[in-house]
Each structure stands twice: as structure tokens, then as C-alpha cells.
Task: structure prediction
Amino acid sequence: ISAEAVQAILHPKPGEWPTYNGVLGGNRYSPLANIDTQNVGRLQLQWVYALRHFDLETTPLVSDGVMYVTAPGQVCALDARAGREIWCHAQPGGGPPAGGGNRQAGGAANAFGQQPNRGAALLGDRVFFATDDAHLVCLNRLTGGLMWDVNMAEAPGRYSATSAPLVVGDLVISGMSGGDGPLRGFLAAYKATSGQQAWRFWTIPKPGEPGSETWNGKAIETGGGATWLTGSYDVETGTLYWAVGNPFPATDGDDREGTNLYTN
Result:
């Protein structure tokens, strides 16, 4: 991964949106000023592209004139000016891989996956996204070809992932969802080049680890703590911020008395 590729994420060019929140700091602010209160009423529809799924929650990424959009198990690259499909990748069970996405009018969509997908991440010649069975997938940015695929789950349970990964330097960081079931939450980072795991942080400590004294009862083994929203990164201090969801069981706390770090 080149230094130029890293800088393109740290300091996006005007008009580009290369990460889920636009910039790593997560403020979703665009400095573009061509559209204002005086001319916004003249905006007109230019094209429509229909992803072959419903219940969409994706945030499109835009870089070098290409838009990247996701649906459950799917990533598609589009010509941002014309809406023409460049390539479309589908995981097994994620829907048809290509064909006929560009539309002049909306239409009914078919369901192929189980959970929504909120977006992808870019770095150099690679596109990264997470699947609803908790795999982190790397695609070639030009062709959509599979470069690597890793299973993020290292503990038993029905793990899933719905949020966009976050690229920091040469690492791709992803959380997991499914914290409303008996799982042990985590956040994990992988080498962008190979998919090799660099580190993992468990949001629920093991008995005897720091924070475990805040769990009284047997729920600590599968205490939830999902990391299902994309985090943010402070470039100046080198600090990663990531929200942690609710403990499990969410409503019956009899087996998890205490403050239950590091949930909520």
C-alpha cells in the first residue's frame, strides 16, 4: 500500500467521499460550496441505479469518478456521472452478480440476504466490505475480483457484520453485529494487503481480565457488546474511537449484575 493511497484517505480531494463518514474523523462535513440555498431548488434527477435488494442502508463512496455502493453481500462500482455499472460483486447468497442495474425508473427489488449493509471502505486498488455472516472481504477496485476473504468470528455463535469497515493506515478495521444474542463482542484489524489479523479487542473481558469485576453472574461468557457502528479515527493523536452496544441479555440483568464493561 503506497503512501499516496494512505494520504488519499487521510486528506480526501475536494468532491471525494472515500470513507463511510467522508473523513476518518467522522463529522460527515463537505466543504463544497457550489450548491447553496440560492440554487438547491434547481437540482434535478440525473440517473437511477437499482441495487437488487431492498432495505438498503448504504452510504455511497466516491473516488476518481467512481461510486461504490453496497447491499447485503453485494458491492457495485458505478460511473458516478452516468450511473453505468462498471462491475458488481456478489457473495454466495448475496444476489445476482451483474446485469441491468441502470434504470430510468424505480422498480421492485428482490431479497437475497438477511441483514442490511451500510457501506464499504477504499484503500489504493482495494475495496473492503463486511458480510452478514461476519466475513471481511477485499476486492480489486478496478475489476471487482476477489483478493481475500477472512472469517472474523473466532468464538462460537451466529456472528454477523453490517457496518462499513474503517481504513487506518494499512489496516482495515471492522466491528461485528448480533449483540442482541449470546455472543462475545469484538473489534478486529487486518492487514489491507493480505487479510492477516493485526490485533483484536474483545469488548467483553474474560474472567480475571480488567473489567471482569464489573460482571457478576454467568452472562460474562456471552455478554454481547456488539461493535455494529463504524468508528472514527483522530489523525492528530492516533486514537481510534468505536461505540460498543448493549450487553446480553438486554432486558434481564439477573445474570449480569454490575456495570458490565465495556458495553453501552
Summary: Residues 94-113 have pLDDT under 50 and may be disordered.
